[in-house]
Design brief:
The structure holds two protein chains of two kinds. By secondary structure, chain A is α/β, with parallel strands linked by helices. In chain A, 48% of the residues lie in helices and 11% in strands. In chain A, strands 2-1-3-4 form a four-stranded parallel β-sheet, sandwiched between helices. In chain A, strand 7, helix 13 and strand 8 (240-243) form a beta-alpha-beta unit. The longest helix of chain A is centred in the C-terminal third of the chain and has 17 residues, at 195-211. The termini of chain A are far apart. By secondary structure, chain B is of the alpha/beta class. In chain B, 52% of the residues lie in helices and 10% in strands. Chain B has helices at residues 8-16, 19-41, 46-62, 64-77, 88-99, 112-117, 119-125, 135-142, 159-170, 178-195, 221-227, 245-259, 295-299, 314-318, 322-325, 336-346, 351-356, 366-370, 377-390, 396-408, 412-426, 437-440, 453-468; strands at residues 80-85, 106-108, 130-132, 198-201, 205-207, 212-217, 231-237, 241-242, 267-271, 285-291. In chain B, strands 1-10-7-4-2-3 form a six-stranded parallel β-sheet, sandwiched between helices. The chains are: A alpha/beta, B alpha/beta. The interface between A and B is large, with 69 and 64 residues.
Chain lengths: 256, 471
């Protein structure tokens, strides 16, 4: 994944300094399949005292197009999305892969991409940088394990933030999976071009999660969620897959 | 040669269902990864060493023409004879001519470049006997297969399967015990080493300032191949040049560690010419065949970075796709992540290499993380996909879907209609949508949100506006 040369200058503390209002890109998968995740994100952001706004034209970041080689379509979508997010406030995204797209690819695709990229904040990054929030223990989730999405971990280099956020939730013990950095097998169109291979990867991931005895598998990307929850439901694996935002909402996060 | 399934997707499907293969792949690649991890942990400033290796390779590529000329001049000064091959066929032709009259047979040390050109087949077509002398390579040759891994050619075979093919060849039972397999191979191959008049090898690095070929091996067979026979022929990709001896050391420092977890390979040979009059042994002639085969095209485009590759195989070992399907499914001598980049280079007119192969990746980025010369493989996989779309590689259905979706996603109203349509089509009681079957056969689709997020949000905004200003 593109690191290094193309990076924009990015300072999260600076972007989040005195922040009181944020914009949100719910992402297309959340809009169509996982509204519950979007609702949880809004609830968490409001509970920690942020005003949220969601532009009606904030639909898709264009990653599926870029990843499949349809660069012109991705460029046009990027242009549209940048127009949709007029203003200066940070843009919160509950997905590592969409954040990667906007932060690393937009600067190469469109002239305004560089400035726009500095506003993009992935959800777990935001939570890790907002001080002073507390939670109650969530019900039925004493043990949780975390699956890092490839774009968040290797693409954006965000490794510690989601774990720090999980560690701050009352009454949740974080149990690490073996080979936790392995891909879940989603990979966008890869999941339908190579279904058998893709689910073989999901099965190994679910087996690793099962070995931790966790009640919940926490993710930060709805793509991983579709893959892992979809496979677990198909094979009858009893494991709850949920987004970090859902767990925070269930833990009644608040900022005194 | 085993019958091959027709296309990449089919081959991957067959491979992933092969539990024996999966077990072998998982355990061997896992073991290599663990060794590599340990070797790097013991290395002082591993990240700095990676940067040095990358820069050594970059220096070679940045002025490749200059360094190649210097390499050629210094080789000739050392008595090494140079040959230039524009493509695979030319390289094979040159080597066949050099090897003509090889009464005693031809022995080979493992070389990916000769796999790339199909040299063994070309030599055999002339009726000559070619014997691979790397143990793994010899086993796959006896089994009439091709290597399935850059550095571990027989990785896909269990020790039982290895013993079986050797037993059959030598006409004596060999137990499935690695030391006994090695002993059988040594006994048999010793005869070939003594009889051979031509030895063929690859080259790991060519040093421009000294006109030296660097060769790394672990079994000692490389030494015998390059020093025993009367003629030594080395096939070398033009990108293997490094300017100086220091640069070569920089690369060697990370090569074995990344490949096998060794500090150094058991044998690191620096070959700087044929036998000199005062030397007791060595070949009478040393030839280097410099192979382009698409490399100079890559040098000038967005795929140039793939030419930095030092063929350590680390990206194969860490790749979640390679680890589950092995090398053969890729249908190319170069498999795994780096194979996705190199195969289109050596097969410019093979549609599969340009259209389907770049999609044999979940773009997880593990290859970029592990690469000892930090090649951004995912970036170039994306570049190949974009190239394929520009050349109208994918079928019209796919292209139309992306074109229409791209238009719709910029228009909230059109998008709302499409979203409703998708929800309608994917509703459980309506059964499967043909396009979604690849997903639903093995995974449940999440229920399409009863109320899409944007709708929920809009209603909420209206409600709170109403609460503030009830009229």
């Amino acid at each position: 994944m593109t690191k290094g040369g193309q990076d924009v200058r990015f300072s999260l503390p600076e972007v989040l300094k005195d922040v009181s209002r944020v914009a949100m890109l719910p992402t297309c998968l959340v809009d169509v399949f996982y509204s519950r995740v979007g609702e949880a994100v809004v609830s968490v952001l409001e509970r920690i005292g942020l005003e949220v706004h969601v532009p009606p034209a904030s639909i898709c970041c264009g990653l599926p197009f870029y990843n499949n080689g349809y660069v012109e379509q991705a460029r046009s979508i990027a242009q549209g999305l940048i127009e949709a997010f007029a203003g200066e406030e940070p843009i919160v995204v509950p997905s590592g892969s969409c954040s990667w797209m906007m932060r690393h690819v937009y600067p190469q695709l469109v002239p305004e991409g560089g400035a726009f990229a500095t506003r993009v904040v992935e959800f777990s990054e935001l939570m890790a940088h907002i001080p002073g929030w507390r939670t109650e223990p969530p019900a039925g989730c004493a043990r949780a394990t975390y699956h890092p999405s490839c774009h968040l971990l290797r693409g954006l280099g965000v490794a510690d933030e989601p774990k720090a956020v999980l560690g701050q939730i009352q009454g949740v013990a974080l149990c690490a999976m073996d080979r936790e950095v392995d891909c879940c097998g989603f990979g966008g169109s890869f999941a339908v071009r190579y279904p058998e291979l893709s689910v073989a990867m999901a099965d190994d991931k679910l087996a690793s999660a099962a070995r931790t005895d966790a009640q919940a598998l926490v993710v930060t990307d709805v793509g991983c969620m579709m893959q892992l929850e979809g496979r677990a439901n198909h094979t009858g694996v009893k494991l709850r897959v949920l987004h970090l935002a859902e767990l925070l909402a269930e833990s009644k996060v608040r900022r005194p | 040669v085993k019958p091959q399934a027709t296309n990449l997707q089919d081959r991957a499907r067959v491979a992933v269902a092969n539990q024996k293969l999966r077990a072998a792949l998982w355990s061997v690649t896992g073991r290599i990864l663990a060794n590599r991890e340990q070797a790097l942990a013991e290395l002082d400033d591993a990240a700095g060493k990676r940067d040095l290796a990358r820069h050594a390779r970059m220096r070679g590529l940045q002025e490749l023409d200059v360094h190649l000329e210097r390499f050629a001049d210094n080789c000739e000064r050392n008595g090494i004879q140079l040959h230039w091959a524009a493509d695979a066929a030319q390289a094979n032709e040159i080597i066949c001519e050099l090897a003509a009259g090889c009464e005693g047979g031809i022995i080979k040390s493992k070389s990916m470049a000769t796999e790339e050109t199909g040299l063994n087949e070309a030599l055999e077509a002339r009726g000559w006997k070619v014997t691979e002398t790397d143990l793994g390579e010899w086993i796959v040759q006896l089994a009439r297969e091709h290597p399935s891994h850059i550095i571990a050619p027989a990785l896909h075979r269990s020790k039982e399967q290895c013993a079986e093919v050797i037993s059959e060849h030598i006409g004596q039972p060999v137990a499935a015990d690695p030391p006994l397999i090695v002993k059988a191979a040594r006994d048999r191959l010793r005869e070939e080493f003594i009889a051979a008049s031509v030895g063929i090898s690859g080259v790991n690095l060519g040093i421009a300032e000294t006109g030296t070929l660097v060769l790394v091996t672990n079994e000692g067979n490389g030494r015998l191949v390059t020093s025993g026979p009367r003629i030594h022929i080395a096939l070398m990709g033009i990108e293997k040049i490094v300017p100086t001896l220091d640069d070569a050391i920089g690369v060697l420092r990370v090569l074995a560690r990344s490949a096998t977890g060794q500090k150094m390979t058991s044998y690191t040979s620096f070959i700087s010419g044929p036998r000199r009059p005062d030397e007791p042994d060595g070949p009478n002639e040393v030839h280097v065949v410099l192979l382009d085969n698409g490399r100079s095209d890559y040098l000038g485009n967005e795929l140039w970075e793939s030419l930095l590759c030092i063929r350590c195989g680390a990206c194969l070992n860490t790749c979640p796709v390679y680890r589950r399907i092995g090398g053969h499914a890729y249908g190319s001598p170069y498999s795994g992540p780096v194979g996705l980049l190199v195969t289109p280079m050596i097969r410019p007119s093979d549609p599969e290499a340009h259209v389907a192969l770049p999609h044999a990746s979940s773009l997880c980025g593990a290859c970029h993380d592990i690469c000892p010369v930090l090649i951004d493989i995912p970036r170039m996989i994306l570049a190949l996909r974009a190239r394929s779309v520009r050349a109208q590689g994918p079928g019209w259905v796919e292209r139309s879907v992306f074109r229409v979706a791209g238009w719709v996603l910029r228009r909230p109203r059109a998008y709302a209609v499409l979203r409703w349509l998708v929800g309608w089509l994917l509703a459980p009681f309506r059964g499967r949508v043909p396009g979604a079957a690849a997903w639903t056969a093995s995974r449940r689709l999440p229920p399409v949100a009863r109320i899409p997020f944007h709708t929920w949000w809009r209603r909420r905004q209206l409600e709170s506006a109403h609460a503030r200003d009830p009229r």
